[in-house]
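> example.struct
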């Protein structure tokens, strides 16, 4: 469902005054530009030079409220064979700036810890960082925090590394 309103003489003014809602519920689609299955199997990130990379997914859902050109969403979900991604954040449609908090789960191992990431900055060149505060939330000692970090990296390393035969 898309319900948008705006007024303006040019692209900029239309985006500054854009209001409404956007709800998507997509089944059996593909995220173009990134092959997540290849990344998880080989550990290599390939650049999309021919626009043929994709991550097939079973389900994608998003509900966004847009006010004055800023789109905000919570609990957006993408589910594929290899990953489950939950995200919340916002995108300023006029300035093309974003701020996202993601939890990336290994869909093949539901008991593994999610990797919390923060994505901020320009849509065209965002900064991606590990969300250390969320990863160590509730832990008190430096030793507990270090162990949580080590355990999460170990799990993710095992997830990313291809199985040796």
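> example.seq
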């Amino acid at each position: 469902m898309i319900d948008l309103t705006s007024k303006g003489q040019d692209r900029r003014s239309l985006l500054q005054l854009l209001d409404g809602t956007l709800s998507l519920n997509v089944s059996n689609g593909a995220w173009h530009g990134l092959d997540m299955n290849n990344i998880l199997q080989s550990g290599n990130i390939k650049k999309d030079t021919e626009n043929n990379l994709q991550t097939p997914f079973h389900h994608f859902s998003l509900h966004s409220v847009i006010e004055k050109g800023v789109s905000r969403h919570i609990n957006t979900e993408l589910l594929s064979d290899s990953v489950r991604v939950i995200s919340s954040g916002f995108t300023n449609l006029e300035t093309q700036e974003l701020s996202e908090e993601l939890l990336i789960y290994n869909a093949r191992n539901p008991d593994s810890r999610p990797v919390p990431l923060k994505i901020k900055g320009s849509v065209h060149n965002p900064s991606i960082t590990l969300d250390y505060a969320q990863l160590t939330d509730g832990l008190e000692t430096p030793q507990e925090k270090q162990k949580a970090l080590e355990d999460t990296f170990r799990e993710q390393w095992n997830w990313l590394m291809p199985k040796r035969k």
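> remarks
The helical segments are 11-16, 36-42, 132-135, 142-160.
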